[in-house]
Amino acid sequence: MDLAREFLFVWILSILFLHHYSSNVNARYHYHKKQKEKGYNKGSPVSPSPVDAPAPQDPVPSTPADPPSNPPSIPSDPYPNDPGDTPDYIFDVTSFGAVGDGSSDDTAAFREAWKAACAVESATILAPSDKVFIITSTIFSGPCKPGLVFQVDGVLMPPDGPDRWPKADSHMQWLVFYRLDDMKLTGNGIIEGNGEKWWELPCKPHRGPKGSTLPGPCDSPTMIRFFMSSNLVVSGIRIQNSPQFHMKFDGCEGVLIEKLSISAPKLSPNTDGIHFGNTKSVGIYNSMISNGDDCISIGPGCSNVDIEGVTCGPSHGISIGSLGVHNSQACVSNITVRNAVIRESDNGVRIKTWQGGKGSVSGISFENIQMENVRNCIIVDQYYCLTKACRNQTSAVYVTDVQYRNIKGTYDVRSPPIHFACSDTVACTNITMAEVELLPQEGKLLDGPFCWNAYGIEETLTIPFIGCLKEGMPQTITEASQYSC
Predict the structure, then answer these.
(1) Fewer beta carbons within 10 Å, N or C terminal of the chain?
(2) Is the pTM of this model over 0.85?
(3) Can you tell me the distance from the alpha carbon of 18 to that of 23, in angstroms, rounded to the nearest whole number?
């Protein structure tokens, strides 16, 4: 009996010891878990819940790459869904006085929210859903702490037309993001441009229905502009009905655009979807663009641009240019467009330059592109001009190393599907055609493919047959120093 009591006593002591040791281990781990820094909390920004918080931001690639995916949870982390792993603060603009009723001016609230969030690392400025915010022309300036997110879940719009635009505000741009690094524009909402009244201004004629002429924009604002910024992400947002260009990137480097939707009516003038100037290392993926001008336009000073999975049209297609205006130098290199669809558009893939320019366009690849009822499916136009008064000049931007591979589909018979109009004095060289098969949408082709001073090869038989590319290289290229970039 005494032996049994002694055994029971030892067993109880063992249980108590093991329970105490386990509690200490858990307590020690939790105590050492990293704590989040406290940020500036003017206006009582709402701390996000695990459900509502945006996903952790992936780093922006320095060179174009496939759209990043969310990494898996780290196996060694025993609390992968710990609220402490979410961003520190969400700066809800309504906490700074924004009303969001579709008529009140919420500009001041957005500026205050920006000022507060800019000072906090990994902060989110939130324009919440079920609200319509009106803000006037604003420059959101940096530098800011890294990881800043501008999240639009509601509707964001400018004043309705030029009559309501504040006279003191610039008519050239609406929202400007300036001198930023590691910033993201995203959300499930809409950025609405209210462009219709701007399109009706009697300043610039444009083509209307049935051959008519309609008025167009004067000093109409670009909707969204990123200027002198780096490591940018634009994802998931809907942008529509801009007075002029929907989105411009000037002097930027490291831009990732994915799952973007841009839309405006087919006859809305100068409503380019995305325009780049002096911008490098760009990736545009899995986006849809329809508007009244170029879906994507690539201006001077751009290089290393990768475009994939874009559906374009109705529109004016995907363009490099225009380049070399006013005898300027223009350098564009390493541009890839692949796995794209272009439909119901005035142009397909286009390179356009002015007479008298300098510089070069080189290292261009158009691959795996489906055309659906497109005029000018493949076009190089070195005589680009907005009037009939442009004179022929002896210098031009040099176009070389351009590949067209697996370009198939249908074309509008009003224009030849292939058109290479190169400069009289500066030939286009190293053009490669492979697996190009273009058939008329309806009717018969009126004019066959056109070539002027264009050199290249057909690796496979093209449909329609080209037969006008010159073999080899031109005997002379005037003053090669003009074309160095």
Answers:
(1) N
(2) no
(3) 9
